[in-house]
Amino acid sequence: MKNLVVVLAVALGSLFSVNAQDMKMGKTISLEQTKGEFTQKQITVDEGTYTFEIANNAVGHDVGFVLVKKGQDITKPENHIQTAYVTKAVGTGLKQTSKPTALTKGEYVYFCPLNPTSTDNILTVK
């Protein structure tokens, strides 16, 4: 009986350790901006935690990244998913990342007000 308890404790500990590591590491969604647009207009991913990596491909000035749940007013910063903001403006020829961002099922709009890009870029989380 004692051995069974030890085995269960080790198994549960491993399970929680792996889940915590997955949440910490997450996955990366890489997006590229060119002058006035994102090169990827629609993306579909599974529910989970993601870091956004934004590349500035010859835009000629700094760019950023904004993510908003579809249907919300994108002009209001309180509707922006702030963890998805890049941690620093992205200079020409460079890449920057966001903080890990938990995405739940639904649709999101992404855009860059600095570039500026259209607001019809859709991220679908299934």
Automatic annotation (TrEMBL):
Gene3D superfamilies reported for this sequence: Cupredoxins - blue copper proteins
Coiled coil: none
UniProt keyword annotation of Transit peptide present: no
GO MF term list: copper ion binding; electron transfer activity
Any single Pfam family the record assigns to this protein: Copper-bind
Signal peptide: 1-20
All residue ranges annotated as the Blue (type 1) copper domain in the record: 32-112
Keyword line: Copper, Metal-binding, Signal
SUPFAM superfamilies in alphabetical order: Cupredoxins (SSF49503)
Protein known as: Copper binding protein, plastocyanin/azurin family
Lineage: Bacteria, Pseudomonadati, Bacteroidota, Flavobacteriia, Flavobacteriales
